[in-house]
DNA sequence: TAGATTGTTAATCGATTAACAATC
DNA sequence: TAGATTGTTAATCGATTAACAATC
């Protein structure tokens, strides 16, 4: 990770951005306040102001934040001004869902390639992309200088795939496999495991 | 949320549990240490011992933790001794993937019902379940006393579905819709939005 | 102007870590 | 026994919040 802004702050910026985009689409106002944004998100207004203050002064006393302007600034901060190409590994049920998910494109990500190792999968079409042989992964990632990847393979294959991705030059991995991956410093790994989230909630439930 | 154990601690327990289960399946040893577990997960050994100490004393000086015993204890703490039935709302690509995901069952969750509002979807089979009419949701959740739900519908429909779920008695919601949901106190909501995770990583990348 | 809201400071709150006596 | 590792305490570190001068 790079400089001295806490990662937990970085983690909230996409949440702010998402809420601001909805506000903008609602179209009923031009500005918002840390108060309003906070109450939408269940976050204190002080925290929002503090978070933003790490990057500059984006508001005006008395009137708050110009929604479109703040969106633009957040996109700049998060490096979302240009789209990011992404490779997807795994063409099972989940890979299929991800390949068809419409939410990536307009939020800055393009899943341009899908890979699998299963001969039955290789060559078939998914959302107008052809599933490629995993053996072509390294070449492609290098040639296209892809930096981001999504892993949607079984846990048993995930570390192997992660190693291949790192070797090819991938710098950020989002993994759906329910296992902790080893990656060298300088390579980010984030996880999405629904079971982990469900298990975190059952603690608070009466069986 | 219930008592005085920090939620951030609760959030790590499923991670510990998952790693311990893998260790157990590898079958090459009977005990582990906070050190070993920590180095697998990139967490300090002190933190693991501290987290566990909120719930009791599970280890032995000199030898560490008996893997199977600690697994059992964590399952008890997280209320995973009995399986949890879960309703899934949304039979699109993502709902389809979730319905077929094999990772739920052996980790304590059973997706037993799928709902949708699309007449073209209602009645079709998904992994041996019939997609039901969303209008039957309320009755079913009440009758079966289901406490957990997964939302896999578009953002535009998500708040509506969340309201229906809460009204029917659902206490924990895992939402894949890219939007912040309002829910009353006493109802937990957790989110899984891949774009939020990707956007958090692009900050650290050179465009 | 009066009211609203920012950006920032200092105080508070909470989480993580280092260290070690206890003990297996 | 000697070595290893726990559970816990106290210290450190970091994040959140309250408060307010500045100012639109």
List the SSEs and their pairings.
The structure is a homodimer of 207-residue chains.
Chain A: H1 7-26, E1 31-32, H2 34-41, H3 45-53, E2 59-60, E3 64-66, H4 67-77, E4 84-89, H5 93-100, E5 109-116, E6 125-126, E7 129-133, H6 137-144, E8 148-151, H7 155-168, E9 172-175, E10 188-191, H8 194-202
Parallel strand pairs in A: 4-5, 4-8, 5-7, 8-9, 9-10
Antiparallel strand pairs in A: 1-3, 2-3, 6-7
Chain A binds a DNA duplex (24 and 24 nucleotides) through helix 3 and strand 2.
Provide structural commentary.
The structure is a homodimer of 207-residue chains. With 207 residues, chain A is of the alpha/beta class. Chain A folds into two domains: 71 residues, Arc Repressor Mutant, subunit A, CATH 1.10.10.10; 113 residues, Rossmann fold (3-Layer(aba) Sandwich). In chain A, 42% of the residues lie in helices and 19% in strands. Chain A contains eight helices and ten strands. In chain A, the strands form two sheets. In chain A, strands 6-7-5-4-8-9-10 form a seven-stranded mixed beta sheet. In chain A, strands 1-3-2 form a three-stranded antiparallel beta sheet. In chain A, a hairpin with a 3-residue loop joins β2 and β3. In chain A, α1 packs antiparallel against α4 and α2 packs across α3. The longest helix of chain A has 20 residues. Chain A is globular and about 60 Å long. Chain A starts with 6 loop residues before the first helix and ends in a 5-residue tail after the last helix. The mean pLDDT of chain A is 97. Chains A and B meet through α1, α5 and α8 of A and α1, α5 and α8 of B. Chain A binds a DNA duplex (24 and 24 nucleotides) through α3 and β2.
């Amino acid at each position: 990770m790079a400089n001295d802004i806490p990662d937990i702050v970085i983690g909230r910026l996409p949440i702010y951005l998402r809420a601001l985009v909805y506000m903008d689409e609602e179209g009923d106002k031009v500005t918002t306040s840390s108060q309003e944004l906070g109450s939408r998100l269940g976050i204190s207004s002080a925290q929002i102001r503090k978070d933003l203050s790490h990057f500059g002064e984006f508001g005006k006393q008395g009137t708050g934040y110009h929604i479109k302007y703040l969106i633009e600034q957040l996109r700049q901060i998060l490096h979302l001004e240009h789209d990011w190409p992404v490779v997807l590994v795994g063409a099972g049920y989940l890979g299929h869902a991800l390949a068809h998910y419409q939410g990536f494109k307009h939020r800055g990500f393009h899943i341009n390639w899908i890979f699998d190792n299963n001969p039955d999968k290789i060559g078939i079409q998914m959302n107008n992309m052809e599933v490629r042989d995993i053996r072509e992964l390294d070449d492609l990632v290098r040639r296209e200088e892809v930096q981001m990847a999504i892993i949607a393979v079984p846990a048993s294959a995930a570390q192997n795939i992660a190693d291949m991705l790192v070797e090819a030059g991938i710098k950020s991995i989002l993994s759906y496999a329910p296992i902790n991956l080893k990656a060298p410093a300088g390579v980010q790994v984030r996880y999405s495991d629904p079971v982990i989230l469900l298990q975190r909630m059952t603690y608070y439930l009466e069986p």
